[in-house]
UniProtKB/TrEMBL annotation, chain A:
The keyword Cytoplasm does not apply. It is found in: Cell membrane. One of its GO terms (molecular function) is transmembrane transporter activity. GO terms for cellular component: plasma membrane. Coiled coil: none annotated. The chain crosses the membrane at residues 21-47, 59-80, 110-130, 137-157, 177-203, 234-252, 264-281, 288-307, 313-332. The lineage of its organism: Bacteria, Bacillati, Actinomycetota, Actinomycetes, Micrococcales. This is ABC transporter permease. Its main location: membrane. It is a multi-pass membrane protein. Pfam families: BPD_transp_2 (PF02653). Keywords: Cell membrane, Membrane, Transmembrane, Transmembrane helix.
Automatic annotation (TrEMBL), chain B:
InterPro entries: AAA+_ATPase (IPR003593), ABC_carbohydrate_import_ATPase (IPR050107), ABC_transporter-like_ATP-bd (IPR003439), ABC_transporter-like_CS (IPR017871), P-loop_NTPase (IPR027417). Residues 9-244, 243-498 form the ABC transporter domain. SUPFAM superfamilies: P-loop containing nucleoside triphosphate hydrolases (SSF52540). It comes from Herbiconiux oxytropis. Residues 501-530 are annotated as: Disordered. It comes from the Bacteria. This is Sugar ABC transporter ATP-binding protein. GO terms for molecular function: ATP binding; ATP hydrolysis activity. Residues 509-522 have a biased composition (Low complexity). The keyword Metal-binding does not apply. Keywords: ATP-binding, Nucleotide-binding, Repeat, Transport. The keyword Ribosomal protein does not apply.
Length: 345, 530
């Protein structure tokens, strides 16, 4: 039935052999073409020049180093798909990290400490969500404001001091989880995979996920077709808050400490990863698969810079250039400014 | 016209392919100076693709373009403009955040010294718009305008350039009858001055009123060419759809049953819609006529929950709380808005998702989309409503305009609602598909739905409706049925609010009403008998 319909409505099949290889690859990989091409090229270069690159040790190291970025980027994917943006995500993560640190310091067990941390993330997200969707304040204004607020909270919680959590009883569990492995596979990799699968399923196969795409594509059409636009928008920010808290758990687990300050370039890296993965900043287009590729791409670049002992000061420059190139490629795809392999042009 | 002189534009053996589709297959045609040529054919037959190639927006995969007999490459719209080719494309291309004046003179803003001469810009823009009979504040931002006015701005921009060939791709589809007539007048004027016009339209009366020749495309190939008005309409239609269209509006046998939709004192706070009252029975089609700004659009939006409104609306006896699309849907109202791009489509999403997102309430279980059922139902809509697409996963905006419309109607009709509110459902749809859509509307009514059909095409209202409510200055001025259901009567009520002959002269007025001169509900009530 399905098949026959598709054929019946076909206007006329174009002879497939005539389409250039590059344009076919571009069509098949969709908006993430740039990220995939980048990963392939970099991997080949690094594999040929840096013998360590393809070792299991380096690969697990790469995964571990990029898990925080990945978790934050998965959350950011939701907001971008819904047509918004959250600038407070890294600051929220720092603040929830401090909450986690304080909980451990107070002698709490791992599970209550984790629960409270996640709850804090949800509350931060709820604040962003309510202000953007119900109070109708533009998301850039809201999240710029809350970014500042959350950064301040992170500092205030422990008077600006880092909490060394290594000796607290509740920390062992988190530490074991973040650094441990089974059958040579790091737990954190499994955690990443599970999180990616869950977010992908939510976005693609649930009413809520489809609603996010609809709202980001055309909020008015979504509203007229019965989708609760405000609730959807609000929940998206709540999800970001939750992933910010998850990321802070991973971060504290890796560093064995909760720091009230954070790497200022992380926000840019997170958003860049999502955009490089082909999620449109205008909303409604893209997804988790692209985000994974975007994070991987930036991670491989970073790893390459480390392996080749290039100063880490270059990281920001490289990320910025890659972001602009990748998004330019996406724009070109859409408007056909660069025509892949077209003859006679 | 000198036959030995080379044609203004000549295209030869044009070929254009898109993934999965041959949009143009060896098409040749020529347009001479001063000629008004109709380009017509079914939805998805390649008309817009051809116009975009001539307008420099697309590059052909094969064939060539000759301007004044010399082969030219039109690499972009600017290059086309240098040869005097101006395209008004089907999708509006205005800069939404700029003012009307800036849009009209975009790229050609008059200068004095180094700076833009704003008074002159405003004066010239207002002048061109006045020629079109449009009097709006040229300082308004374009995105605050209705589709019709945006279309007028787009037209104003095109006619204010020094065009040698003007391509109008369904420029009239969002215009009211009066605005259409003014545009056709302008076309005649341009043609007299030697400007060639390529008119793409699905409306037969326009083709016959303006064009001296029609070229018909079918499935991307040339299906024929016909001199006008010598060729009979049914001949032309047969060329387009490949068969005779019998029984254009279809028919239904079931007599209207019990009242399903009751409306009493429905109005909006801003006065655009003043208190109206009517009833629609199961199996009945209530037509709604009126000029742009008459309140008919607000009626549709109020019933669909798109705008806040007050009054008493009952569906199947149950009162409906107004102002929310979700509640309107839950009450069983299937609403199709008139502005496809702004209110109905999810531009970056696929055909399948554009259809199924309107069913999220029913196609999910425990919050999860039932994927197999979704796929099956979407495929059924695509097949049942003849949506021409090479794949269900194709981006909806890559479908031709008419096929986008069929997808939107299909997703709404598939919901099986007791009440439908359809605002301009056949906008941009080809004759064959229009007839098919009329068939679907008849079938909906036959199955017991109450249909409110808002349309600016009087023949379609007459062909489908049991009764037609005519709006004027925000309220219903008359409900016409039976032998009175003629274009003259409907037109007269729409324009002046009174019957033909009652008024010495017919005045088109777009002023906002200050007072309701007749108690509208009484008039509506008087005409309610069938
Ligand atoms: N950019 C594109 N990418 C892929 N397919 C396209 C693109 N533009 C058009 N098509 C396809 O080419 C065919 C011709 O489309 P076109 O828009 O020219 O039709 P049309 O005759 O203008 O139809 P309508 O009367 O509905 O406007 C359609 O099958 C359409 O889906
Ligand atoms: Mg078209």
């Amino acid at each position: 039935m399905n098949q026959s319909t598709a054929e019946r409505t076909d206007v006329k099949a174009a002879p497939p052999a005539r389409r250039p290889v590059l344009s076919r690859i571009a069509a098949a990989t969709g908006p993430a073409t740039g990220a995939i091409a980048g990963i392939v090229i970099l991997t080949v270069i690094l594999a040929l020049t840096q013998p360590v690159f393809l070792t299991w040790g380096n690969i697990t190291n790469l995964v571990g180093a990029n898990s925080v970025t990945l978790v934050l980027a998965l959350g950011a994917t939701f907001v971008l798909l819904a047509g918004g943006l959250d600038l407070s995500i890294v600051a929220a993560s720092a603040a929830t990290g401090m909450v986690f640190g304080l909980m451990l310091q107070s002698g709490a067990d791992a599970l209550p400490a984790i629960a409270v941390t996640l709850l804090a993330g949800l509350v931060f997200g709820l604040l962003n969500g309510v202000l953007t969707s119900y109070a109708r304040i533009p998301f850039l204004v809201v999240t710029l404001g809350t970014a500042s607020l959350f950064a301040s909270i992170a500092l205030l919680l422990n008077d600006g001091k880092t909490i060394n959590v290594f000796d607290f009883p509740g920390f062992a569990f988190v530490n074991d989880f973040v650094l441990g492995q089974a059958f040579g596979i790091p737990f954190i990799l499994m955690f990443d995979i599970v999180l990616v699968v869950i977010t992908a399923v939510v976005l693609r196969y649930t009413k809520f996920g489809r609603g996010i795409y609809a709202v980001g594509s055309n909020a008015e059409a979504a509203r007229l077709n019965g989708i609760n636009v405000r609730l959807t928008t609000m929940l998206v920010y709540v999800i970001v808050g939750f992933t910010a808290a998850l990321a802070s758990l991973v971060q504290v687990g890796r560093l064995a400490g909760a720091a009230p300050t954070f790497d200022a370039t992380l926000l840019l890296t997170v958003i860049a990863a999502v955009l490089i993965g082909g999620t449109a900043y205008t909303g409604g287009e893209g997804g988790v698969g692209g985000t994974v590729l975007g994070v991987l791409f930036l991670g491989v670049i970073q790893n390459g810079l480390t392996l080749t002992s290039v100063s880490s000061f270059w990281r920001g420059a490289v990320n910025g250039i890659v972001l602009i190139l990748a998004v330019a490629l996406g724009v070109a795809r859409q408007y056909g400014w660069l025509r892949f392999g077209r003859k006679g042009r | 016209m000198n036959a030995s002189e080379p044609a203004l534009i000549r295209v030869e053996n044009l070929v254009k392919r898109f993934p999965g589709v041959v949009a143009l297959d060896d098409v040749s045609l020529e347009i001479r100076a001063g000629e008004v040529l109709a380009l017509t054919g079914e939805n998805g037959s390649g008309k817009s693709t051809l116009s975009k190639i001539v307008g420099g927006l697309y590059q052909p995969d094969g064939g060539r373009i000759l301007v004044d007999g010399v082969e030219r490459r039109l690499a972009n719209p600017h290059a086309a403009l240098e040869h005097g080719i101006v395209l008004i494309s089907q999708e509006l291309t205005l800069a939404p955040t700029l003012t009307v004046a800036e849009n009209v003179l975009l790229g050609r803003l008059p200068r004095r010294g180094g700076a833009v001469d704003w008074p002159e810009t405003r004066r010239r823009a207002a002048e061109v718009l006045a020629e079109l009979g449009v009097h709006i504040d040229v300082e308004r931002r374009v995105d605050s305008l209705s589709v019709e006015l945006q279309q007028e701005v787009e037209i104003a921009r095109a006619i204010s350039t020094r065009a040698r060939l003007l391509i109008l791709d369904e420029a009239t589809s969002s215009l009211s009858e009066g605005a259409t007539l003014r545009l056709l007048d302008i076309v005649a004027g341009l043609s007299a001055r030697g400007v060639a016009v390529l008119m793409i339209t699905h409306r037969m009366p326009e083709i016959y009123a303006s064009c001296s020749r029609a070229v018909v495309l079918r499935d991307g190939a040339l299906a024929g060419e016909a001199p006008l008005p010598a060729t009979a309409e049914h001949e032309l239609v047969r060329m387009m759809v490949g068969r005779e269209l019998l029984d254009y509006y279809g028919s239904r046998v079931a007599a209207p049953a019990g009242v399903v939709l009751e409306v009493e004192g429905l109005h909006t706070a801003d006065g655009a819609l003043q208190p109206v009252a009517f009833e629609v029975r199961a199996g009945e089609v209530l037509g709604v006529a009126g000029l742009v700004g008459s309140g008919k659009a607000e009626l549709a939006m109020a019933l669909g929950g798109a705008i806040p409104a007050r009054g008493d609306v009952r569906v199947g006896g149950r009162p409906l709380r107004l102002g929310s699309p979700r509640r309107a849907i839950a009450a069983g109202i299937g609403y199709v808005p008139d502005d496809r791009r702004r209110e109905a489509l999810l531009p970056p999403r696929s055909v399948a998702e554009n259809i199924s997102f309107a069913w999220l309430g029913t196609i999910t279980r425990f919050g999860f989309v039932r994927v197999a059922a979704e796929r099956r139902d979407v495929a059924k809509v695509v097949a049942d409503y003849g949506v021409k697409t090479s794949s269900l996963d194709k981006r909806i905006t890559l479908l031709s305009g008419g096929n986008q419309q069929k997808a939107i109607l299909g997703r709404t009709f598939a919901r099986g609602c007791p009440v439908y509110v359809l605002n301009e459902p056949t906008r941009g749809v080809d004759v064959g598909s229009k007839s098919a859509i009329y068939g679907y509307i008849q079938a909906l009514a036959e199955k017991g739905a109450a249909v409110v059909l808002i349309s600016s095409e009087l023949p379609e209202l007459i062909g489908l409706s049991d009764r037609v409510a005519v709006f004027h200055h925000g309220g219903i001025r008359a409900v016409v049925s039976g032998d009175d259901l003629t274009e003259e009567v409907l037109g007269a009520y729409a324009v002046s609010g009174t019957r033909p002959g009652d008024h010495p002269s017919v005045v088109i007025s777009t002023d906002t009403p200050t007072s309701a001169d007749t108690p509208t509900s009484a008039v509506a009530g008087a005409g309610r008998t069938r």
